[in-house]
Amino acid sequence: MTPERRARAATRSPWLMLAVATIGFAVNFWTWALISPLGPLYRTTGTLGALTESDVALMVAVPVVVGSLGRIVVGGLTDRFGGRVMFPIISGVTVVPILFLAFFALDSYPLLLVGGFFLGIAGTAFAVGVPFVNAWFPPDKRGLAIGIFGAGMGGTAISALTTVKLTDHLGAKAPFLITGAVLACYAAGSWLILRDAPGRVVPTTSLASRISANARLPITWQACLLYAVAFGGYVAFSVYLPAYLKTAHHLTPADAANRMAGFVVIAVIMRPVGGWLADKLGAIPVLATGFGVVVVCAGISAGTPPLHGVGTVAFLAMAAALGSGSGATFALIAQVTEPSRVGGVTGLVGAAGGLGGFVPPLIMGYVYGRTESYAIGLWLLSGTAVLALVLTLTVVRRTEPRKQESH
Question: Which spans are transmembrane here (predicted)?
């Protein structure tokens, strides 16, 4: 960065940069989650032919794969080129699959899978925003700042609340055309407003060597496992909860989408709270508490309690726990990772979180197709949270002080 550009960047407010990045994350996540609310609707209406529960699970999970694995590369590219370049690129490129879906794929299951695959590009925006925001804030505020940015995952709530309604009232193309227009506007606006933080360190080694080096850091694989459970659990519920509520509790697609939005809102609110608490109390207590709540509430939910009582409380408590755990995980990364490596580590950890959300819907669909019960899937979630809790209280607890002392 030249002295002139550094001076101009220094005049930008970190909070303005955080706000614009968070908006971009929300818009991209809104796009990323477009297909999820439509899965149960397509199954009910028969628009795409006769779909099984596994067909719907695959359709809503495919964008998650690309959005997850793509973060590994996009995180490394963000370390190299900065968020000011990568945010407009990711947002602009995603407009292409949006238009493909709107005009070519809405009456074909195979084409919908193809479009959903490339729609996953929007999910990589997470790996752009974390290193971008991290560089703008001092260490004692990074947990809160990244937690606020992470609240952009509430874009999935926008999708849940609007997609089915727009489809019913304005036609099947409407949700896609509207998000495409919003993405295009954001791509242009972010190019004009965003600036990378002054003094940002640009890595000089190759992308492949940086990915390899970051993968060998102890904090990387530990955070990958924690985030696969915390954020993976959130993604799994946000993409599969409408189908689960429709099948297990016999709700309408619109009612199921509204309840899923409530789950998302709670998780979104708790993500910055988790980051803030991790700044104040340390990440370990926040993570341990969150995983403990998931252990109990997933076990309760396995019994399919009625939604008007214990069932709703259990799901909302899990939403709060998963949201706070996601925020605390990245507060931990920000505290113990060199700033020039945050993007690369974020890409790997974000990929693990996304993949953590890809597998459960497939398992739930497969198990339900053979047992007509979701209990096994929810007990598996409870057991996985037990393992994450043990990891947090043993290995991660021992690693955290050592890593902090090294900086």
Answer: 15-36, 56-74, 86-106, 112-137, 144-164, 176-194, 215-236, 256-274, 281-301, 313-333, 345-368, 374-396
